[in-house]
């Protein structure tokens, strides 16, 4: 399976999409590169929630590996999302290109780091990793499979986490031109933390807030006026991420001055007055002569 990400992760194809090597190679050849930001934490959460589920082709008995390829430093918390995957027994290999942050790659990747972290100076050099990475991946799968056959327990992603691990009833209230208030009902089993992600629906950098699991409300501030926002609330447990709550709402437009009046006219001056715009700190007044034939 393969997903691309910037500020909005996108599944290119699921694990169940192709059944032969040639089909996969053809899909890679037809892949269009997605440029943009580097929200690696959001991408890893997308992989867990969307790509590693049975309905996307993930087999519960199969070993689960994630290969992260990035050319920059993450603009959100990649470590928290990566730790959630690793706690579920999912192995992460991190490959950096160009401006990737090696310290971050080592945080995200599984142990032992000498087998799971790679860094090259430019994209063409990725081909030099293929042989070694292929051997390492196959060896790791065999090792983990042998442990399972010997009786070790392997953690699987729950097929249906249900209301026990998922919050409900997201309400968005007290919406202004630059803020809104979120509340939700906590799941039956309180999470360790909540991860709240919000961003403009028409494009923009996602922002995130991490809250203690005992809290079930949040005030979002410093928003852009007259803008539709997508909001997601994810419960984070020690070994799993619960199903997220999602909502959409728009901030109010900035208030306008009203009731413009003209008085005290003379041959070279006029006085203007208006009802104040709530929250305005200054006004810009523009004046120009009406064109010939138009009403002054």
Written account of the structure:
This protein is α+β, with helices and mostly antiparallel strands. It has 2 domains: 147 residues, Rossmann fold (3-Layer(aba) Sandwich), CATH 3.40.50; 84 residues, Sandwich (Immunoglobulin-like). Helices cover 21% and strands 27% of the residues. It is built from 6 helices and 14 strands. The strands form 5 sheets. The chain has a 4-stranded antiparallel beta sheet, with no helix packed on it. Strands 3-4-5 form a 3-stranded parallel beta sheet. It has a 3-stranded antiparallel beta sheet with strand order 6-7-10, with no helix packed on it. β13 and β14 form a beta hairpin. The longest helix has 20 residues. It starts with a strand and ends in a 21-residue tail after the last strand. About 4% of the residues have low confidence.
Task: Record the SSE blueprint.
Blueprint: E1 2-4, E2 10-13, H1 21-29, H2 40-51, E3 65-70, H3 78-87, E4 91-97, H4 102-108, H5 113-116, E5 117-120, H6 130-149, E6 168-173, E7 180-185, E8 193-200, E9 207-212, E10 217-220, E11 228-236, E12 245-250, E13 258-263, E14 271-275
Parallel strand pairs: 3-4, 4-5
Antiparallel strand pairs: 1-2, 6-7, 7-10, 8-9, 8-11, 11-12, 13-14
Helix pairs in contact: 2-3
Helix content: 10-25%
CATH homologous superfamily of the largest domain?
Answer: von Willebrand factor, type A domain
The parts where pLDDT drops under 50 for at least 5 residues are 151-161
Residue fraction in strands: 25-35%
Shape: elongated
Question: Which class do the helix and strand fractions yield?
Answer: alpha+beta
Number of strands: 14
What is the chains' assembly state?
Answer: single chain
Please report the distance between the alpha carbons of the first and last residues. Answer: 67 Å
User: What is the CATH T-level topology of the largest domain?
Assistant: Rossmann fold
Provide the spatial order of strands within the biggest beta sheet: 9-8-11-12
Order of helices and strands: EEHHEHEHHEHEEEEEEEEE
Average pLDDT figure: 86
Main beta-sheet annotation: 4 strands, antiparallel
Domain tally: 2
Keywords: Extracellular matrix, Secreted
Pfam family, one: fn3
Domain VWFA: 1-133
Protein name: COKA1 protein
